[in-house]
């Protein structure tokens, strides 16, 4: 056991060997709305948007595709879902899975297939930063046991949402200066999160998709123009702006921002088409910021899942 742990800490391959192995693996080909850019093991995708903006729906849609067998249009992969928001709806996941298994609305579904897909979806909930870090540190042993049991590892890690504890940690850091509580530094926490995920990817190559809730920069519209200008000047270094003047304040430390390889912005749409096909549907705009793409997809959330509106 000690040798196993030492091997895990030290790593069992060089960076060149890891890159060669990762590049030899077929890229993930997701259905819309994540179809624009091929994604590979080792990539870190960040879904950014206000709450709500269908970020968790997109995660669930991708997770259902991942756990389905290839002959059902899936990827035949295991998925690990880390719920930091503590609002994951397993009934919604089951509903989308059943719809994919029985798309024609048949009453009877393939129970064996359903059980297989559900067994491929692994779920863990964290209530604070310390639980999150502990989960990341112990994932290696859990994934090793899973690999020994099923002969295949987890290829998709989802985190919803990566900034869930940021403001609590910030408040804790402020309170620790007044009392005897253990100090919590935001930069140190982010460094530990990135370090643990990076170490995990070296031994268990996975695609990472994380959501992050943000607030667009219209929050100061009710104050005077002079105050607004002063606030904007103070926040200018932390302000991210896309080419359509939608803006949000970036609050995650730079160590996480530089760790992200792909970034997608999701926001609500003011254009709501009228028709029977759009009843009980909500529309959003999805834009690739990293890499920058010149077009924006309009996506619709229906009972059957998330789709690109054509």
Automatic annotation (TrEMBL):
Signal sequence segment: none
Residue ranges occupied by any RecA family profile domain in the UniProt entry: 19-214
Designated name of the protein: RecA family profile 1 domain-containing protein
InterPro entries hit by this protein: P-loop_NTPase, RecA_ATP-bd, XRCC2
Organism: Flemingia macrophylla
Protein origin, superkingdom: Eukaryota
PROSITE patterns linked to this entry: RECA_2 (PS50162)
């Amino acid at each position: 056991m000690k040798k196993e742990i030492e091997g895990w800490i030290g790593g069992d391959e060089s960076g060149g060997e890891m890159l060669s192995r990762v590049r030899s693996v077929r890229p993930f080909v997701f259905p819309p709305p994540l179809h624009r850019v091929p994604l590979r093991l080792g990539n870190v995708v960040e879904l950014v948007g206000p709450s709500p903006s269908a970020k968790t729906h997109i995660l669930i849609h991708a997770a259902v595709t991942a756990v389905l067998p290839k002959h059902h249009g899936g990827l035949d992969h295991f998925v690990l879902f880390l719920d930091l928001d503590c609002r994951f709806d397993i009934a919604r996941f089951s509903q989308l899975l059943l719809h994919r298994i029985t798309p024609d609305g048949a009453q009877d579904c393939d129970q064996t297939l359903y059980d297989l897909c559900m067994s491929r979806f692994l779920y863990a909930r964290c209530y604070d930063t310390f639980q999150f870090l502990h989960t990341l540190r112990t994932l290696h042993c859990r994934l090793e046991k899973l690999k020994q049991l099923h002969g295949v590892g987890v290829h998709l890690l989802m985190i919803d949402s990566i900034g869930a504890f940021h403001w609590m940690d910030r408040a804790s850091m402020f309170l620790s200066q007044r009392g005897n509580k253990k100090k919590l530094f935001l930069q140190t926490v982010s460094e530990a999160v990135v370090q643990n995920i990076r170490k995990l990817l070296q031994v268990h190559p996975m695609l990472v998709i994380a959501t992050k809730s943000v607030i667009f920069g219209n929050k100061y519209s009710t104050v005077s123009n002079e105050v607004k200008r002063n606030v904007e000047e103070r926040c200018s270094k932390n302000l991210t702006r896309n080419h359509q003047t939608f803006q949000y304040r970036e609050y995650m430390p730079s160590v996480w921002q530089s760790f992200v390889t792909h970034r997608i912005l999701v926001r609500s749409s003011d254009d709501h088409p009228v028709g029977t096909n759009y009843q009980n549907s909500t529309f959003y705009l999805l834009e690739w910021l990293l890499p920058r793409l010149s077009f924006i997809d309009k996506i619709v959330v229906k009972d059957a899942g998330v789709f690109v509106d054509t």
